[in-house]
Design brief:
It is built from 9 helices and 15 strands. The chain is of the alpha/beta class.
Length: about 300
């Protein structure tokens, strides 16, 4: 995988115009961001109805411990399994402060923990992992070095089959992806196979009386000019969740209208048509499914 990343980086520098046209496969996907994998009948029907082929499942978070070292938190349990034919993509959220300085060995520990969770829960056929981090200019280089170390750990062979003594070996994971927030489009691309553009949490929560902090086209527009030349294949993720806050004792609900989601999606795809290939929604949950009608989801996923 590191060879692919190096080659892609060189091509991006020499011919950005060509690299940005590289497309991902046509895939409908969804994030799963709860602490227990447990699907009810509504969620299973949604996966089938909208031809979902990938579930990016948050396995655990990595947070800064009291001792100044990163540690896992909020680890997923697996009370259920995904339906046949749907690919699991283990996803790990790492807080930005964990990237303020290098932590040798962290990448290998992270990959090893994912492998152990897959083995413990008999999760097979996993070929990709994703890292989610709201990195900034301060943490970017350390984070990119960390991603390279993750890629190295993914490429480290493990014995074929279940036996450590097996003669043939296979890579642990063949793909590494990362989330890309809108403000990160202004930075050099991370050393991964592709990114998922998070088209949500776009606004300032303090200005909620003026704009929806979850998604507002006015907050997205300033970043659109970076899309066409961004030298990394991209998927796009759109919000279908409700953010509930209590401000001075008053319950405030932030929900994005279906028309607003579709207007932003149209603007994003106008700047970069390949972003209509792989579409995700955040996140899989019965309440989120029932928040929008079937037609809205069909338009998001472009059946």
């Amino acid at each position: 995988m590191l060879t692919r990343i190096f080659i892609f980086a060189m091509v991006a520098m020499l011919a950005v115009g060509c690299s940005r046209e590289r497309e991902l496969a046509d895939v409908n996907a969804v994030y799963y961001w709860r602490t227990d994998l447990r699907l009810d009948s509504t969620e299973r029907a949604f996966l089938q109805q909208h031809h979902i082929k990938k579930v990016y499942c948050r396995y655990f978070d990595v947070v800064m411990g009291d001792d100044g070292e990163p540690k896992p938190n909020a680890t997923m349990t697996f009370s259920d399994t995904l339906p046949d034919g749907i690919e699991m993509v283990p996803t790990v959220y790492i807080t930005e402060d964990c990237m303020h300085k290098p932590h040798p060995g962290l990448a290998a520990k992270l990959v090893r923990r994912i492998l152990q969770m897959n083995e413990t829960n008999d999760i097979r056929g996993v070929s990709e992992i994703q890292i989610d981090c709201d990195y900034t200019a301060r943490s970017r280089q350390t984070y990119y070095d960390f991603l390279t170390a993750v890629a190295n750990s993914c490429d480290t062979p493990v014995a074929g089959g279940q036996s450590p003594s097996a003669s043939r070996s296979t890579p642990r994971f063949s793909l590494l992806s990362a989330t890309i927030r809108l403000h990160q489009l202004q930075m050099p691309a991370p050393p991964v196979d592709y990114g998922v553009l998070m088209v949500y949490n776009t606004g300032d929560p303090r200005r909620f009386m003026e704009r929806n902090p979850v998604l507002d086209l006015r907050d997205v527009k300033p970043y659109l000019r970076h899309l066409s030349g961004y030298p990394l294949p991209l998927a796009a993720a759109y919000p279908v969740y409700q953010w509930v806050r209590h401000i001075h004792g008053v319950r405030v609900e932030h929900t994005v209208d279906a028309d607003d989601i579709l207007r932003v999606k149209q603007a994003v795809e106008h700047e970069r048509p390949a972003l209509r290939q792989t579409i995700l929604t955040y996140h899989l949950d019965k309440e989120n499914i029932n928040r929008y009608d079937t037609k809205t989801y069909e338009e998001i996923y472009r059946h």
